[in-house]
Batch of 2 targets.
Target 1
Amino acid sequence: MAVDDTLPLLHDTYGSARNPAQNSMGERQHGAEAISMPAAAPVRAPVPAPVPSARDHLRLWRHAGLILPLAVLALVEALVRSGIIPDHLLPAPSTIAQTLWQMGLARVLRHVLTSTFRVGLGFAVGAALAALLGAAMGLSRRLEALLEPSFQALRAIPSLAWVPILLLWMGIDEAPKITLIAIGAFFPIHLAVVAGMRDVDRKLVELGAVYRLSAYALFRRILLPAALPQIFTGLRTGLSLAWMFMVAAELIAATRGLGYMLSDGRETGRPDLVFGAILLLAVLGKLSDGGMRWLEYRVLSWRDSYDPSGPGPGAR
Amino acid sequence: MTTPLLDMRVEAKCYGERTVLAHTEVQIAPGEVVSLVGPSGCGKSTLLKIAAGLDAGYRGEVRMDGAPQRAPSPRIGVIFQEPRLLPWLTIADNVGFAAGPQGGRDPRVATLLEEVGLAPHAQALPKSLSGGMAQRAALARGLFGQPDLLLLDEPFSAVDAITRMRLQTLLLTLVHRHHSAALLITHDLDEALYLSDRVLLMAAGPGRIVEQHRIGADHPRRRGDPALASLKERMIEHLESAQLA
């Protein structure tokens, strides 16, 4: 560990007799020494020992968090096999796995890829429109005053209410599904973009004025980056809603996809199929949100905010 | 004095019914350091915004080298009370902001960072800097455009006393080296006396300049110089009587 690497050096500098405490108390001890022994300064300034990173601190809990769902699956397996839970209500995880295996990689993959494609396309369309309209409304108070009441009303419409209209207008092909998903993704992202632009610190805008930035440069160099944290929150909400609306779309009229798998399983009385689809949805949702979080972490590494994975008040 | 670098005459500046500035004139010669001292709410910051071209809603006129000016100018560098660095840019890119998105690569950035002692932190993000370091970066950014005039709005009021003294000395060094004039707003008389060639005292309600003192002492000045201390006492007396009036 990094702490152990630096400690011997400091011992050599100051004499080990003065430093009885080690490791966990290391940082505080060094600080006290620096004050009591100013004469030692020319030799080597005391480098504070790096605080053990939060990742180390939480490692146990992170691993437990990954194991928890597996433990629940094992528990269900045991309960079903021992007959405590009837398997026509909740099939054993092994049965679900077997079902997926028997369907064959090609068929499972076809369902997964179809759904993923729909979510990806719908999300992309919804996010692009939301970013465009949101930025326009965020930049122009007139436009916001004009459009906001309508958007409030549109936002209030429940997702399923769109389905009959879309089927009526677009038939039962891909178009209504993609549109429904795009609608689902649109609103949270739109809301986040408008709010993000609106909340940019006035002082940063003033800085833009000092540097005589054009409207475009102000947007590109100050407003957009300043709004990104909120925009990302919207993107993540939008993505999870896109998965939700995909299921709604596929439940109604589809011949492939995970939503189709769900309704197919229900109609043919096969809970293993239903649960197989649910498990796949959980995995895909987790993967896509993980990807988005990774992107957020990379893009917004400049943020100086409370890091929930960082050392808490009791961590030091 | 020949044509002043900055010549501002504000007849009136109002927020609604309230007049915040009335008949306020400030002239600054090239290379001159002028402090504006006054109680909070006397319109110091408003005056600075007008000088910076950030506020055009006033009656009066601002001239730079005789030419009227009502918008921000590349010849003026502005340093705010807080560093106001853009948190998503490296220190280098912040300093070179005026040169565009790739501003950090401008060779002048490296020179300036060297001058303010931040060369090792060129690629660091603002969140990793202390308040004093961030304000040094802001100083470098203000000087990047080689301005003829620096406007500073209580730039050192948010840092601790030791850091403040260091920053004051640094400011003086930089202003002299870059041959820039400076208009410094402060509520700290010691700061004004240590740095300025001239101190303007402002009073509130409506804001106006009530007195000015020329300070002849050579640089570097000694903090706690008896002559400066007695000048300070006179200024305090004056400020207090102006408050009562």
Note: The two ends of chain B are 32 Å apart (CA to CA).
Target 2
Amino acid sequence: MFTATAPVRIDTTGVRTGGTLRLHGSGDPVLDPACLDDAASAQLVRLYARQLFTYQPDPDPRSWQAIAPVPDLAAQIPSIYNAGLGASGTTYVVHLRPGVRWDTAVPRTVTAYDVIRGFKRLANPVRPAPTLGYFTSTIRGMAQFHAEYAAAVGPDASAAELAAFQNSHEIAGIFALDDESLVFEVVRPILDFISILALPPVVPAPVEYDAFVPGSPELAGNLRATGPYRLTGYARGSALTFEPNPVWRQDTDPVRRQFLDRIEVGLGGSVPAGVDLAWNARVPEPYTDPPADPANGLGWGLDPYLVFNLRRPGPLRDVAVRRSIAAAVDRSAVAAAVAGLRTGTAIRVARGIVPPDNDAYTGREPESTSDGRIDGLALTAIHPDTPEATVVARSYAADLERVGATVRLVALSPPAHRERVADPYGDWDLTTLSCAPAWHYQNGRVFLQRLFQGGADSTGNRGGYHEPEVDELIERALDSIDPRHANALWQQVEQRVLADVPVVPLLFQTPAVRNLRSERVRDAVAMPSLGYADDLCTLWLDY
Amino acid sequence: MTLTAIPEPLADASWEDIRALFMLTPNSIHLNTGTIGAMPYEVLDTMDRVTREWTGGLMDVYPPGMYTEHRANIARSFGVDQDEMVICHNATEGVARIINGLDLHEGDEVITTSHECYSVLSNFNLVRNRHGITMKVLTPPSGYDVRAEEIVELFERAIGPRTKVLAFAAITLFTGTLLPIRALCELAQRHGLITVIDGALLPGMLDCDMRALGADFISCSGSKFQCGPLGTGLLYVRNKVIPEYNPLPLPTLWPIISTWYPMIGSPPPRSTTEMESDNIGDYLQSAGSASIARGAGLAKACEIFDRIGRKRIERRAMELADHGRELIAEHFGEKAMYSPGADVRLRSPLVAFHPFREERDAWNVKKVHEFVTRMEHEHRIWIRWTEFDVPHSPHQYYAARFTGHLFNNHEEMERAVKTMVRLAEVMS
């Protein structure tokens, strides 16, 4: 299945270049950066799409450098000291690193206008970025841009219609000073703006992308690279191939390297011999005792949580029914089922929404007052066909059937599952999702805003929960730049949401055992920003 | 190079002779005293002499580090007493020691402005993080037509039941607005508030009776308008209650960074009369070994300014800046001015303006930065760029700023404005 390439070559520092890195996993990745919502896809996109800011691999996860954004396409982190941040904290000036080029037919420099195009694409109404709410609640004029965009072209727009809107409308709070510099204006002083700009979807888009609908298969066949590799082959459901991008220059990229001749990702089927790394699955080194808390201070994930589809009319709109379901689910049984898969994570039964070691963590939830019976309730529960999602679905479905419900489990491939839950009219009542901290410092908003803020641009709120009182609390928390005050407000948000039971937190998990790698893989670093997947841009092969 | 013949008395010396006292770079125009002044040769000589006197010797270095005599002389120049005056390293250090030394607690509110120096905003933020105070940051109006009453009303409207401190710059570094200091201090007194003034630009610019201003604390630079050595500053700490100027009790101040704060027990209760109960200045001044030479240099700079006459210097700097202001208004229009002009009470020797035709270029840091850089590199004229908020605007504004001081002259001001007009035309 994998391709043979020239043997690796050693340099004077002992680092070897060359060889084919082989990964294997299931499901198809999201290849359009603007539509990214999962760490496994982000791991691949990082190979070819450089960001304004990103993270550098640090072998010690306890190091602050593992979670501190660093300049990527940007020349430096904007601050008061480099005149990149105004005293009021609402204006950021970003200068682009010179010499970064697209791998277009005639290589072309990445410009500030490409960055702006990338932001406009995030707000497209066909496949808006799942993290759009962070941007619309932060950047001046972006919510209005998104609303007008959606009103003007609708969710079934063609590429030409999308391009026509984007090229004739601006986001008021993002403007270029010239080809190399741009300004961001935010609606309030915030402490996490650089973390938001370091999210994987924040990448420039070349003008060539105007010819394609975001997230479309056509775009996947016409990606342009700024990173050290580029996609050279993609057979849906079968394999992807990446090869070095000849236009990329090391002297313009402080974060990535280009050690490999080729990267192949096998999709689906049985795991062939010769795999170096798993992709889109946690495969740890062998271990015996249950993994303990790694105590690295990094935020755990809410993984998984049960989501009610509140967009559909029906009994789930009744909070009493949701409370009964929440009370019926045996979270300890879910924990045992997941632990049995031996994915190398430390596991805790979730109490509350915000997991440990994240801002605003309390570990508290209101006492349940339900009698637990839901006789006659018929539910459609969808889940990805991954081993973990499957055992979780079976576990909670058995619990619900014990209290009188009928649960129809529907297993979908991960991409199909993503599509179904993103569809406002999707046919499902229940599903499980997971949410990892998108950043690890001053991250009060990463669970509570993303999952529970209402409105058209709250694309991470998959169940459609909308409570104005919660939205108002979220706005107040976002308005606070005093971390203590903000955390107290986020905790209020959490308690208020839990009382409404739009979700049932099931488990908190964090990786606690190293990823399994083949013997020839060297300098592989698991990155918190990639859900602890290895950084493919810096590892090398020993033979 | 040193100056050997100083024309005396300086009070009667011509401005041309006085200009010769200063170490100015030849063939250049220094219009950036708002950032750093030019030292008199005599100051350099003093620093050199004192450094040599104290280098390698066996004398006790601690008593002169208290600068007792220098503080007394400098205090006199500003209408206050030795126990109220401290020589420190710069305005930032002074204001940091005050802000962190205030007896503030969770929920106490500080009112300040977005036009403050970073050192003020960052230190209050530090106290916010440490003690849980709250900050109300006002954006003052800017522009040629701003009036003093607008500014006082802005502060007055912001005062609430938890307000404890008003903190503001005497002269804002971004737009060069001379705030109505006495009026704001009276406002604070009416509400029982502590006043912390960033007076970085104050000494050497204004002939100023610090006590009469009615503030509790004024932190100053020694190296800007005062033209002392780099790394010098002055700190005024009100240490007696003189009802005519400020009838409020002395605020509690914890003199952080102090060798001579008692090692057990407390200093005497603070005075409630016109007689000090203790020398708060000594507590603040005592901070281990000190740069005796720099203190002497600052004292010499102050002495030279006293000899020239501080009122005379103030008039000169104002008059030069007014000349530049008029030329700017003539060429660029009053609408281009960010510094006040119509209300003479708000004028200072700093003039900030927008040099380009397009309004949106006011948000373009690169263009304004390039303008200032080209003035320096192509024309050897030193000005600077500033950044500030404008009420109700989402944009960060950037301005070109020039400064007049006693060593400048009308010809320089005219040449500088003429050059700026030409360059702005090219860049617009």
Note: The first helix of chain A runs from residue 39 to 48.
